[in-house]
Design goal:
Elements (H helix, E strand, L loop, with lengths): L2 H7 L3 H18 L7 H18 L12 E6 L26 H11 L3 E7 L7 H13 L4 E5 L6 H10 L2 E5 L5 H8 L4 H15 L3 E7 L7 H11 L2 E6 L28 E4 L4 E3 L15 E2 L5 H5 L2 H10 L20
Parallel strand pairs: 1-2, 1-7, 2-3, 3-4, 4-5, 5-6
Antiparallel strand pairs: 7-8, 8-9
Helix pairs in contact: 2-3, 4-5, 5-6, 6-8
Bound molecules: S-adenosylmethionine and iron/sulfur cluster (2 copies).
């Protein structure tokens, strides 16, 4: 964290209020074309700002009721060693790993805003007990949940409970060829994942999905995976290869048929790292103002974090942000399942 960010985080409450007020008014005034309207508009905006300030509604500055996705990278530890991915190379230590209670509090606070909570990693099922606690809490608040898994650690007991809660499980599969599997995953887990896939299908039916990474290395495998999904009557989604620290290659023509004016929808996201740091998208390092995290849910309330001026400013920048990561499944408005 930079010194400037730390100084802002420790400002006194009164300074927070002044800073917050002018942070909101300055850009507002700039948007008023008819200058003679400024006093009236500022007066009205001040009333609106005061209401939000004192009631501190959680929907403030977010996408409104059920408009946000909470994405929790519960761990960067992983039991696989995929060539496409480098996350497993930097596992968090025990002291860096967020206490589950802090995430549950965050979920409780935000649930009115959430249309979905997504668990990713690393491998989320390394923390199966915590994952089920989150799944139970999400069900209490009627927030649909998605877990993205490599499928190795799935068990019958887990599937039974998860199916009762009505959530969605996504298996990541990039090939159906056993000979390729070892190179792709760095581990000989083909048989295990394939039998777990059938088990998951038995318990979850249509709540099971498969996601594949579209890369030079997989472009001939994906049609076969889609065919399998068709036979199983489950949905399939591909997301383009990005730099996750892996050694694969993106497919150059990938954006040819896509409308490149597409707007990144990552502004809807609230992303949490394994240590509790909050960012607006996991590619935040591409946006200079967003390089530092917005705060940490172990130390602060999520609403306070998201209502910071820097958070609002980053959201504004994200409106026109245009990097290939906008095509990742968590950053598009609606996943188009093929
Ligand atoms: C990082 S993984 C974490 C969850 C779990 N370990 C898994 O593999 O499903 C989340 C998703 O990102 C995908 N992924 C991994 N490396 C990627 C890359 N370089 N580009 C795009 N997606 C990637 C995975 O296939 C998976 O569907
Ligand atoms: S893609 Fe998933 S399973 Fe593979 S190394 Fe990355 S986190 Fe682990
Ligand atoms: S384009 Fe990438 S960096 Fe920009 S907001 Fe979207 S996900 Fe974040």
């Amino acid at each position: 964290m930079s010194l400037i960010y730390r100084r802002k985080a420790n400002q006194s409450k009164i300074m927070d209020t002044v800073y917050d007020y002018f942070g909101e008014m300055r850009p507002f005034v700039k948007r008023i074309d008819k200058k003679w309207l400024i006093p009236l508009m500022v007066f009205l905006k001040t009333i609106e700002w005061s209401i939000y300030r004192w009631y501190k509604t959680p929907v403030r500055r977010f996408y409104g009721i059920k408009g946000n996705e909470l994405i929790y990278m519960i761990t960067s530890r992983c039991n696989e060693r995929c060539a496409k991915c480098g996350i497993w190379k930097n596992p968090e230590s025990d002291t860096e790993h967020l206490q589950i209670a802090a995430f549950i509090d965050c979920l409780k606070t935000l649930h009115h805003n959430l249309y979905q909570v997504t668990l990713t990693g690393g491998e989320p099922l390394l923390f199966m007990k915590d994952v089920l606690l989150i799944a139970e809490e999400a069900a209490v608040h009627k927030v649909p949940m998605i877990i993205v898994t490599n499928g190795v650690l799935v068990t019958e007991d887990f599937l039974k409970r998860y199916a009762e809660l009505g959530h969605i499980l996504v298996f990541s599969i990039d090939t159906l060829e056993k000979e390729k599997w070892g190179n792709f995953r760095g581990k000989d887990t083909y048989d295990k994942v394939m039998s777990n896939l059938q088990l998951a299908h038995k318990f979850l039916g249509g709540k099971l999905r498969i996601q594949s990474v579209y890369a030079e290395e997989t472009k001939n495998d994906i049609p076969k995976i889609k065919e399998l999904c068709k036979q199983m009557n489950i949905q399939h989604v591909s997301q383009p290869y990005m730099d996750f620290g892996g050694v694969w290659h993106g497919v150059k023509q990938i954006y040819e048929n896509k409308n490149d004016n597409i707007i990144c929808a990552a502004r809807k996201n609230i992303c949490i790292y394994p240590n509790g740091d909050v960012v607006k998208c996991f590619d935040h390092y591409r946006i200079p103002l967003a390089k530092e995290s917005l705060g940490n849910i172990e130390k602060e309330n999520i609403i306070e974090i998201l209502c910071r001026k820097r958070s609002t400013e980053i959201s504004k920048i994200m409106k026109t942000c245009n990097f290939p990561c906008k095509y990742l499944s968590c950053n598009v408005p609606e996943i188009v399942y093929e």
